[in-house]
Amino acid sequence: MLKASFTRSNRLTQIALAPLLALSLVACGGSKKPAAAPDNAEIDNSDEFDDGMEMMQEFGGMNEEKVTRTFKRLQPDLSQCLMDAGQDHEYLGGDIAFLVTVNSEGHVLSAHAERSNLGNYQTERCMLDILSKSRWPKPVGGHKGLARNGMGYDAPSDVRPPIDWASEEIAETLAEDDNAEVLAACGGGGPFEITAYVSANGSVLSAGVAHTVDGGEETAACLVGAVEDMKFSSPGSWRAKVSFRR
Which of 219, 163, 231, 157 is nearest to 194 (CA)? Predict the structure, then answer.
């Protein structure tokens, strides 16, 4: 009798615990971790944006570690841009600082060189195109995010560096009626930071531009073309490098 009573008690206990056990299993299933991203995924964005979030700000934060990893992954391609341009301009070198604006899905809205003294528009555009076509971490707590990073490039060690020229050295030439008119015709906005290499005879070997103006690329390209057509005073027996604002 004791054995039968114990068995029935066990059954009653099991029946009573069954709904609790089912609820426990459902709860465990609800907290199951999402499947791991494929090995070929460029960016792990699984924890960075919740489409159901309300009261979103326009700009959110960015996971700086992931941003740094993205720039590092792209660095070989960015360097190749300079190497390609260096085949015709072996003296190229300098620093460039990037500003990339991404949307809530990690796609690029705009990419700018907010600072650059590379002095070669082709190189700068090549780099910005690479950044624009890449996938980026999603912003946290905002509809947009800003990714920043800077890189420096040295000219080949066997190439004599240019002379550093102050902007005052070319101010008079820029103020000449013809030059001032051409620059003004490119349009307003800005500021635009222009860097140029000037040969020993005063002609411009190469020029580049930095700016953060959305929609200002047409003006930037116009300014570079105008400067490359100018003739400055001779810097002496060797090429010079100069930066100025427009």
Answer: 219
Rounded to an integer, what distance in angstroms lies between the CA atom of residue 194 and that of residue 198? Answer: 13
Instruction: Let me know the angle formed at the C-alpha of 128 by 170 and 197, rounded to the nearest 5 degrees.
Output: 20
Tell me which of 48-62, 102-116, 129-143, 152-166 is least confident: 48-62
Amino acid at the residue 99: L
38 SS3 class: coil
- Which one, of 245, 208, 242, 214, lies nearest residue 228 by Cα? 208
* Percent share of the chain, pLDDT over 90: 76
Q: What is the pLDDT of residues 100-134, one digit of tens each?
A: 999 999 999 999 999 999 999 999 999 999 999 99
- For residue 20 the two structure tokens come to 């609790």
Alpha helices in the chain (DSSP H): 2-30, 64-86, 121-132, 168-175, 177-185, 217-228
Which residue is it, tokens 């002379």? Answer: 163
